[in-house]
Amino acid sequence: QVQLVESGGGLVQPGGSLRLSCAASRSIFRRYAMGWYRQAPGKQRELLAAISSAGSTNYADSVKGRFTISRDNALNTVYLQMNSLKPEDTAVYYCNAALDGMDYWGKGTLVTVSS
Q: If pLDDT is split at 50, 70 and 90, which confidence band does 66 have?
């Protein structure tokens, strides 16, 4: 069982930045592929960014060039650096860990982009 705890959400003005963190409970974190998702009201959860156990990354077109995913295996933590935020980025952001067909989710952190 893997427990994931997201942090770093909050209120930010358009054009601003936030860094989300996701701390994982298990020391085998380095074997997991990690991802950040978000879900806006009335919309489906969407994959924003993913990072493999080897460190390769991919991004949704909607955030490419603005968001950066990274991981620190020593701290069992994955990050999402979000720049140039837009009101349409407002959503609950979730961390995901995947390994051998098993998926784990955090409870989410709310990001609100508004002036």
A: very high
